[in-house]
Amino acid sequence: MRFLSLRLIPLSTIFLAQISNGLYLLRKRATICNGHAELCDRPYGNTTFLAAHNSYAFSRDPLALARDQEVDVLTQINIGARMLQGQAHMKNGQLHFCHTTCNLFDGGLVFDYLRKVKTFLDANPYEVFTFIFTNPEQVSISDVWKPIFDQAGISPIAYTPPTRLMKRGDWPTLKELLDANKRVIIFLDAGADGSGGGTVDFILPQFQMVWEDPFSPTDNEFPCKIDRTDGPLANDDHLHLINHNLNKNIVPWNLGTVLVSDFLNAPKTNAVSSILMHANNCAPFSQGRAPNFVLLDYINIGQTAQAVDKLNGF
Ligand SMILES: *[C@@H]1O[C@H](CO)[C@@H](O)[C@H](O)[C@H]1NC(C)=O
């Protein structure tokens, strides 16, 4: 007769984590956080994340002028994207991710997109994600956005801060977010402050907590200034995002302006040197700190993950 051999896991490394109301599962404590042991004790507000601009707007077709990415969202995530950005519009009564208008580029249902990301989250429980979605039509937060997060299974793992507005220095560490299994931070640029029909505790008002430098930059020197922010917290208490997605005007002789993402220069734009230069340009506006979000087009081109590793001190 053979004896069962039990491999004992030290009790200190597992604990009961609440999955949803009344449901608990044994969970192993996080020891590798977003791919690095060193990031476990790093506060969220002191971490730099690789961010995919218009993450849903991908195409391999160079003539798809409204594209901002070449590869789909799961490939972006595998490259290292941990902040996903998208622009939402209503179409036939449903929320889609579309670039400018749904006639120009329809990236499909927000729900389908979130389900796809959720498959990655389920398979990778030690990854903290951020969504910064734009809501140009001020679609209702409580009636439209929340049910989509609920149905996609994101709401139970979305982080609700202890106070509505979190200062940059007050965020938990990645390990704390992971051990609580509250590892998705959700910002909307408009409507989340109550102006869009009610508030939802885990849908946070971006510009009250995250400032950005100018969007749609066309200068490859990436001059920085605080462009979009909204009180009441001081700018120093905000997280910050650099718009490092270079655009070019395709109207000849500058007779007008139609900006498209500059694909041909993507290898230069997404080089470590260009990203670090931009981060440095913003340092005077952020007490010398690195950006929290490096927003890029074509994140499969260049050294995007390496640049973010450098900003994190690796
Ligand atoms: C994190 O803190 C270190 C040390 O103060 C700093 O050099 C770095 O820029 C900070 N990063 C972010 C994203 O705040």
Automatic annotation (TrEMBL):
GO molecular function: phosphoric diester hydrolase activity
Signal peptide: 1-22
GO terms of biological process kind: lipid metabolic process
Ion transport as UniProt keyword: no
Superkingdom field: Eukaryota
Pfam families associated with the record: PI-PLC_X
Protein keywords: Signal
InterPro entries for this protein: PI-PLC_domain (IPR051057), PLC-like_Pdiesterase_TIM-brl (IPR017946)
Protein name (database record): Predicted protein
